[in-house]
Amino acid sequence: SLVVLFGATAGAYGAKLGSDERELILLVWQVVDLHSKKVGTLHKSLVKADNLDLSDQCREVSGLTPEGLGKAEPLDRVLQQFSQLVSSDLKVLGRSSYTLCSDGQLLIRQVLHPETSKKNFLLSDCFYSFYDLRKEFHTCYPSSAAVKDQTIKTMAEYLGLGTDETEEDFGVWQVKTMVAIIFSMLSESCNHIFTEPETVKYKYETGPCSKSETVDSETVIRARGLPWQSSDQDIARFFKGLNIAKGGVALCLNAQGRRNGEALVRFVNSEQRDLALERHKHHMGSRYIEVYKATGEEFLKIAGGTSNEVAQFLSKENQVIIRMRGLPFTATQEDVLGFLGPECPVTGGKEGLLFVKYPDGRPTGDAFVLFSCEEYAQNALKKHKEILGKRYIELFRSTAAEVQQVVLNRYMSTPLIPTLPTPIIPVIPPPYTIATGSIRDCVRLRGLPYTAGIDDILEFMGDATADIKPHGVHMVLNQQGRPSGDAFIQMKSADKAFMVAQKCHKKMMKDRYVEVFQCSGEEMNFVLMGGTLNRSGLSPPPCKLPCLSPPAYAAFQTAAVIPAEAALYQPQALLPTTRTPQASAAAPPTVTYYPAQAAQLYMNYTAYYPSPPVSPTTVGYIAAPPGAVAAAATATHTPILPQPGALVRMQGLPYNTGMKEILSFFQGYQYAPDDYNGLIQLSDQARSVLQAPKEWVCL
């Protein structure tokens, strides 16, 4: 038997049903016996929504009013009545089992499953399997319109059935017409058989993903704006009703190994992906989530891995993964198992633990733990911030993709330099330099769509792209690292910049017009470094203010004395020019130490494109031991500053922050030894900065 089901929400109707997150307000259904071709009673139930504000389209199409809906039952009660009435009708027809049949996918996947998930009650098993009448109709009548273009009305017109919707109440006509279409498909001329229903997965399945696996780009989306504590199960719940591929949720991490509020999600096919895109700006709790298209390459970059150790760890499927952070470096497997205790047994004992290590074998303080059920995982999460040794331990929900991303992509990556350099050469190619000066050879784009990328800007520029300097397109990001709607472009000359500003000003990009202004390299630098450029002139960025000039921003000369224990490299292109006349007179060299017995040199650096606001592009080096620094100081007879990037300044700390919280924040990074403190020569102005309240400088 089939139960023909039709529904409507308080918002959009038709192809956009469920895309606006509005609640269900109407359910109409009727039982159909496919063998005897008999039907049960037609039932119509109004549903009381939490928000009775109906859209204009809903009022016009359905004829329903808030007053009438206010007297209806809530959704959970209506679904209980649905099950009872269907069972009663089946008994009358002498049947016991049934499958739902709806007009398309939207009512089941985009309305019922998401709404019941948000309201925290379960749907009965019948809602996890259904027939899509549009697909069945197209299979029976291949010459009919494409599935995506089908409606109840077009299918009825194709069969020559009556299409006067005004004769019946809204919903009643739709169900009666669907039943008539089904009987036409069951006629001797067609003899259609309903054999392969659509299915909805009960739960998300975890699993590993190999980098050699082929991922169709038409099945991947990027979700942005997720709460930082979101797990893969939370994301799967957001997409409830859609079928996510096994191991198809990959949480994105930032350079510090922390979640950045984004995730890549892989669905079983392109149809499910297209439905997922309709959930753009739907809500997870109080936050709205942005949903965009992504590529298979992006998914594999985050979720793919090839390590045998990780593959073996993740081979136990359908396990709950917990990430532990802040472990003492001396912690052993026995210590971790003892910390978790008997109330949350680890799957496989020691085999259910995976310690994260740096390429040289040193522990990072992170570990992943497997639990066989949700109850054990919840018991483990209750130990969040409990003490192990002398450290408090943080525990979070994790995913298989996060395990691969942390262990493989962050810590087990190939070294940037395979062997030690014999000559003193730049460790990485010097990056391009941003133009300075008052020559107006740049243009500023304002009002860009937030989804615009470099390719969109180049297409917007048209023929003028030939006059852009190499690496001359700079996207301006806000403090959250997202596009601000501004961009700067370096042109080959001021005349070219003037022509572009005249030609492209207020030209359309997607659905927005973009303003284009001519500007100078100096003005561009101010904005890229966090300043503002408006009609009233330039406002300097925070790091340009005289009292906020940290000593690590000083310029470095190219001449250097190379001591026996250290190699010297002056990355002149990496640092902005000095901001004080005194610093340019006698700038000291920087010391980069290469370990004597090392076979390979590993470096971690973060490259921004463009440089983020209030942060110049810097490169981190392996710290030199005190002896090497002292030797360099003796040889050059000049005061020495630490290597570029060694000093960081923290703003916005809570007033009750202590040293313990700061060290925990930088957990996993090496700090310079105390001996550096005596080598740093500070001016009174710089010393006042370092001693300012609510701000710390970590050495």
TrEMBL record:
Family: Belongs to the ESRP family.
Protein name as catalogued: Epithelial splicing regulatory protein 2
GO BP term, pick one: mRNA processing
InterPro entries: ESRP, Nucleotide-bd_a/b_plait_sf, RBD_domain_sf, RNaseH-like_sf, RNaseH_sf, RRM_dom
Swiss-Prot/TrEMBL keywords: mRNA processing, mRNA splicing, Nucleus, Repeat, RNA-binding
Domain RRM, residue spans: 219-296, 320-400
A GO molecular function held by the record: RNA binding
Gene that this polypeptide is encoded by: Esrp2
Entry's localization field: Nucleus
Major localization class: nucleus
CC terms in the record's Gene Ontology section: nucleus
